[in-house]
Amino acid sequence: VTKKAISSTTHQQVVNQISIQKEVSVRRCCRVLGQRKASIYYKHKRTNEDAQIAAMLKGKASEQPNWGFRLLFHWCRNQGKSWNKKRVYRVYKPKKLNLTIPKARKKIKRVAINPLPAQQTNQRW
Q: Within 10 Å of residue 31's Cβ, how many Cβ atoms?
């Protein structure tokens, strides 16, 4: 079992199966597999509120199509949600709610007229 190839929940399942089948302690299983014991008891703290974030962003973006990410994020904050900016942006990007930037117009090229050279000092043309 390699560290990076398997997720933490899979490690937990493997260690639990081995400890039950071989009748060995969790500590010994972790030591043999090269896994830390603390990772076996780890519980994710994050709740899955991504759907709620996406719904709020999509609803407000359809109401206010000229609002970018920052305005949408601060609007969510003013609604009383304490979501992290990185978390909101992670949900915002795949929804492709980005503002479309209009293309710049082509500038008119004007032909410069070469003025006649001055005939006297301080002459204007």
A: 13
* Exposure b/e, 53-86, CB count within 10 A at least 16 = b: bbebbeebbeeeeebebeebbebbeeeeeebeee
Per the prediction, the chain carries an average pLDDT of: 82
How many CB atoms within 10 Å of residue 122?
5
Phi, psi of 122 (to 5 degrees): 60, 25
Put residue 97 in one of left, alpha, beta given phi > 0 → left and psi -120 to 50 → alpha.
alpha
pLDDT exceeds 70 at position 95: yes
Which SS3 state, helix, strand or coil, does residue 7 take? coil
* Residue 89: closest CA among 67, 65, 66, 73: 73
The DSSP symbol for 97 reads -
Where does the pLDDT of residue 4 fall: very low under 50, low under 70, confident under 90, or very high at 90 and above?
low
